[in-house]
Structures are given as structure tokens and as C-alpha cells.
TrEMBL record:
Superkingdom, natural source: Eukaryota
Sequence ranges assigned to domain Survival Motor Neuron Gemin2-binding in this UniProt record: 10-30
Family: Belongs to the SMN family.
Record key words, sorted: mRNA processing, mRNA splicing, Nucleus
Example of a GO cellular component annotation carried by this entry: nucleus
GO annotation, biological process: mRNA processing; RNA splicing
The keyword Nucleus belongs to this UniProt entry's keyword annotation: yes
Protein location: Nucleus
Protein name: Survival Motor Neuron Gemin2-binding domain-containing protein
PANTHER family noted in UniProt: SURVIVAL MOTOR NEURON PROTEIN (PTHR39267:SF1), SURVIVAL MOTOR NEURON-LIKE PROTEIN 1 (PTHR39267)
Length: 99
């Protein structure tokens, strides 16, 4: 059995493919939603400037936990928004085919 090359820390932690994939997905998202929705902008302290339900963040004292919960909230929000937009496009396409 041939000896396997031992990877360096730089090779192990190389996340360039992940970053490239993220950038491509972000660009696609921006192209698809530019005229439809404006995403919430982070405030200067890094926390989303929005009125999240107090029950979501509740009494959590840990800032990283609050941020995690808020990202979970927004992921669900945008998933639902995307589904609604896709359904509206499909219905519009069906109506234009009939009309």
C-alpha cells in the first residue's frame, strides 16, 4: 500500500472552495432578490437592526447564542419568503399560459 502524503495545516484548513461557493451563492441571491426584497442591514455593533420577537431571544445573556438564534430566525424567514416567491412565479406562469 503506497504511503499517503501527510497534509500540512494550511492544506487541512484550506477553505477556498467554501469561500468561492459562498461568493457564488451570494451573487446569485443578490441577482434574484435585488428588486424584490431588501435584506436587513447589520447595525454597527454587528447585530441585525430589526425588531425580532422578544420570545426568540428571550432572557439569553450570551451574545453568541442571541446571534445564533437570530440567524436561525432569519434563515427560516428567508426560506419562507423564497418559497412564497417561487409559488407566486409558478402561479403567474400558469395564468399567463392560460391567458
Amino acid at each position: 500500500m503506497p504511503a499517503q502524503k501527510e497534509l500540512s495545516q494550511e492544506e487541512i484548513w484550506d477553505d477556498s472552495a467554501l469561500l468561492q461557493s459562498w461568493d457564488e451563492a451570494l451573487n446569485e441571491y443578490k441577482m434574484n432578490t435585488a428588486d424584490q426584497v431588501s435584506a436587513p442591514e447589520p447595525a454597527s455593533d454587528g447585530v441585525l437592526a430589526s425588531n425580532l420577537p422578544q420570545s426568540l431571544v428571550g432572557e439569553a445573556q450570551d451574545e453568541s447564542l442571541k446571534n445564533l438564534m437570530m440567524s436561525w430566525y432569519w434563515a427560516g424567514y428567508y426560506t419562507g419568503l423564497n418559497e412564497g416567491l417561487n409559488q407566486a412565479k409558478q402561479e403567474k406562469g400558469k395564468r399567463s399560459e392560460k391567458g
